[in-house]
Amino acid sequence: MVEEEKSGPGTEDLDRSRDYFGRLNRTYNGLDDFPLVEMPEHLANLKFSAGRLDNLPGSLWRSVFNSDKELMQERFPYIPMQIVLWGLYNGEVVISARDSKPEMKFKGNFSKEAWIYKLFLKDLSKEEPNIRGDYRDHAEQCFRMIDAYIELGKYFGGKGLPEGVSEF
């Protein structure tokens, strides 16, 4: 289970944030009854979750991406492909097939994504609704990121952290 820390949210706070973004994702008839005033709290929990996901090594994400048999036998939790792909490109050095030059991927990829979704969602208002409903997709990605952190926290709580990871 995800442990509460002095500097981070507790499990209940993260569950509430996951549910908040899940509900926002399902708002099809406008935002009139949605508690947007709570958005800053939930965006802070998203930032925390993203920072912790940034700690996981690329080797773990490669194992998930390749459906590693041993990992799957250990009842590894379902993680959406979008989250796995962000993990694959989290601080890894790759060689470009086109020009054989090393290319450094952004370290802190989850934090970068959380920052982008914060920009998209922080000014969401009932007075100026997003007519196309793009905010629902943004909310879904926030839900997925927090959900992945919660589920991985449960998994690592029973199994132990991956090699090289000191906190999660």
Work out the number of β strands: 2
Low-confidence stretches: 1-5
Beginning-to-end CA distance, first to last residue: 10 Å
Task: Indicate how many domains the architecture comprises.
Answer: 1
The global form is globular
By secondary-structure content and strand pairing, the structural class works out as mainly alpha
SSE order in H/E notation? HHHHHEEHH
Strand order of the largest sheet: 1-2
- Main β-sheet: number of strands, strand sense, barrel status? 2 strands, antiparallel
Number of helices: 7
Overall pLDDT confidence: 85
- How many whole angstroms does the radius of gyration measure? 17 Å
User: Which percent bin holds the helix content?
Assistant: 40-55%
Strand percentage lies at under 5%
List key phrases describing it.
single chain, 168 residues, mainly alpha, 2 strands, 54% helix
Q: How would you explain this protein's 3D organization?
A:
The radius of gyration is 17 Å and the shape is globular. Residues 1-5 have low confidence and may be disordered. Helix 2 packs antiparallel against helix 6, helix 2 packs across helix 7 (134-159) and helix 3 (58-65) crosses helix 5 (81-88). It has 168 residues and is mostly helical. It contains seven helices and two strands. The protein has one domain. The chain has a two-stranded antiparallel ribbon with strand order 1-2. 54% of the residues lie in helices and 4% in strands.
Quick gist of this model?
With 168 residues, this protein is mainly alpha-helical.
List the topology elements.
Blueprint: H1 11-25, H2 39-53, H3 58-65, H4 69-73, H5 81-88, E1 93-95, E2 102-104, H6 109-121, H7 134-159
Antiparallel strand pairs: 1-2
Helix pairs in contact: 1-2, 1-7, 2-6, 2-7, 3-5, 6-7
